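Re: the request from the purification team.
They wanted to know what the chain is likely to look like in 3D before they choose a buffer screen. I agreed to run a prediction and write the result into the notebook, where they can find it.
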Amino acid sequence: MKNILIIGSTGQIGSELTMKLRGIYGGANVVAGYIPGAEPKGELLESGPSAIVDITNEQQIAETVSRYKVDTIYNLAALLSAVAEAKPQLAWKIGMGGLFNVLEVAREMHCAVFTPSSIGVFGNNTPKDKTPQDTIRNPRTMYGVTKVSGELLSDYYNIRFGVDTRSVRFPGLISYVTPPGGGTTDYAVDIYYSAVRGETFKCPIAAGTFMDMMYMPDGLRAAIEIMEADASKFVHRNSFNIASMSFDPEIIYNSIKKYLPDFKMEYAVDPLRQSIAESWPNSLDDTCAREEWGWKPEYDLDSMTRDMLAKLKERLVDAKK
């Protein structure tokens, strides 16, 4: 039985991943790490232990690992892409300084570490379509720079010190549970909220801009399955391409219109997010993840749209009660 610490448990991925892991390993065995001002609430607070864990404080991480006999750390602390451009110094402090702290604790206390990477590691010189696992990584955003550096540092700690580091490159993650948090791909979450509320959606990304996307249930499975995989079959570690679907704003708009024919969308392109989106791949080749640890998505665009619309309608109705 694993004992797991989630650093960043109240963030975009963390809240859902914490609950998913508690369902598998038991509530008492998954610690929700948080920073003051972002405390766990409701089911997240009540279903298992929580602890203040500031990723910039190595001693705090070590004390929590020792107290709860943690053997696996999910390091989810990061600023998302558009926010990181506004606060590059803080993005580096959290993304790289924080990762260094986690890896040092893992080295000393024999923990496995999962640190998510992103399609943001790729840049303008990367092949755009079916981007290979091993290719040029030359991002022009601070978010991407920290993710590339994180991949390299995680590999270094595995090769040099034997720390069991593992990672996936997440595409845009679409969820009905956690609201958008400042990512370039978040338009693909916002659009469903607008549709269910009967609002006209103002799209910040231009038509024809393709990006890789994934429904959150598949993303959570990937984060769990890679940590449960047999590492003897790994050729890669940090980080695996994983893929599910690729679309532009028109395609997702038309997917929603099949179920909500009166839905309307207009374009109000955000230059910053558009420039970031244009530097990222249109689609990823995830052959290595499929071959080395059996990765396979369960959702395509249509099945995701049906589920998102149904779940959001339920949530918005409940919110009005």
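For the purification team: The radius of gyration is 19 Å.
Please add any questions underneath this entry.
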